[in-house]
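Illustration 12: ABC transporter ATP-binding protein.
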Amino acid sequence: MQSLRWVWGYIRNFRIRLFSGLFLALTVSLLNMLNPYFAGKIVDKVIYGHQNHLLWSFLGAMIGVTVLKTVIRYNYQLMFESVSQNVIFTIREKLYDRLQQLDFSFFDRTKTGDIMARMTGDLEAVRHFTAWVIYMIFENLTILIIAIGFMFYINPLLAAAMIAVTPIIGFFATRLSFTVKPTFTAIRGQFARLNSVVQENISGNRVVKAFAKEDYEIEKFSVENEAFKEKSLDSAKVWEKYLPVLDSLAGVLTVVMILVGGIMVINGSLTFGELVTFNSLIWALNNPMRMAGWLLNDVQRFIASAEKIEDLLNTKPEIINEVKQSNIRHMNGGVEFNQVSFSYGDEQVLKDISFKVFPGQTVGIIGPTGAGKSTLVNLLSRFYDTTSGAVNVDGLNVRDWEISKLRDSMAMVMQDIFLFSDTIEGNIAYGNPDASLELVQAAAKMAEAHDFITALPEGYDTIIGERGVGLSGGQRQRIALARAILKNPSVLILDDTTSAVDMETELRIQRTLKSLLKDKTCFIIAHRISSVKEADLILVMENGQIIERGKHKELLAKKGYYYKVFMNQNGNFDGQHNGEDVIYLNGAQ
Ligand SMILES: Nc1ncnc2c1ncn2[C@@H]1O[C@H](COP(=O)(O)OP(=O)(O)OP(=O)(O)O)[C@@H](O)[C@H]1O
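Figure caption equivalent — predicted structure in token form:
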């Protein structure tokens, strides 16, 4: 009921079309009674009554009814299709809208496949329900009721005898549909597994080839393929068991009609024409009974899908705009972490982090993998909220910033770079779609991407494959960097952005960034000391805590973690160097 109420909320806007469709369906149900009636009359009046002149009128009427039925049916099917497409359009838009609002934590815990299933299979179940199931239930019900009424009108005794058999057909048909349903569900589940094996194989084809695991993959696929075949055969076996029963029961209806009706014709309480009418109405009893189970299954499928879609639509983002009044203001880029701790569920990842950065300063963050570096910068744009403590930007808690303004004023080049299947120009201009090609090129030059882009046959118009296929890791990083630069943010966050770029290019990028970033606050997460050594403040993180902080030289002087990493990366110069020589060795001035 809840699902019906929910879908009615969408159908309501098209209720005139829906009710017009139902009215036309009712008309067709009524028209369905006419041809059996005329067939009976032909027998009684034309064959037995010898009123041959009536034959053409009856035949003409029968043809007319058939044509009218077809035209009306065509129209109401279109009406239901139009209602369903409109309903689905609205729900799809809402779902997509909701997906845009949901935050990182939702995508952390929800599989892409689940979301896709809701956007496709579950939506299709709702479409099927509104386009087909509703009118099929209505049509079958009205045909059954009208046919029963009509039969009772012609001959109550024969009608009662035939109707006594129909619940048995209904019972077996419903049993069939309920027995076959789990096999359908199993087929669908197995199909999804088969699909994911294929999908993973395609996405991971490079790994498969690199590890020469083709035979293993073929074997893995064969197991799932075999299971799919078995499940399809199981389903067919259920059909084979029940279908003959159903067909025999439909035959029983005919037997009852001929037996009881025949006796009645012989004893004169029924005309032969009326028996023909009954015969022509057998389908009107048989069909709805056979359809009942399927329609019930469809309704169940609709309810399950509607609940899943509703569930997604009702999922609330955890990061919400708490700003009561619009406080759109320019961001200068002063950042302060005040005793910030953060946990993903039960796992504490950041512990008591405090530091302060003035607008225009550069912060380098370094530390072993899993130390919490990315998590720290994720709190800046409120991809997650702190568990305790506060992150302030320009003296205002990030929770008090309007989220869109907060994120719009920052640009982040994430570790896991995502490029859209679009042109290079489109990808760079993603955050600033109105930017001219000159601006796009200027950003690409700063990111040291211009040269390799222009060397491509189609230059900035080159379409990048899915996730940036066709480009090297370093090229993708530079395009992502250009995308961030073009946004002209107040705070630029680079998470391991130049890790795949050679040292020399990295150095050129750093020089450009240095001039570019004069008035911008910049966070640089890196594993290479060379990436952070120029920073105004370097934070060394380990196990979610800041274990060392300061400038390059200060940290070297501490001879702690930073010093050790520095020595590892630049060779051990008997521990005497203060960094300047090494910078020279790296090519820096
Ligand atoms: N979305 C998440 N859900 C749960 N745990 C997470 C999530 N992201 C990161 N973690 C965990 O938080 C810890 C810190 O991860 P984080 O990515 O911040 O480290 P990092 O210092 O940036 O590492 P790296 O240098 O490898 O990028 C790790 O133990 C990681 O397993």
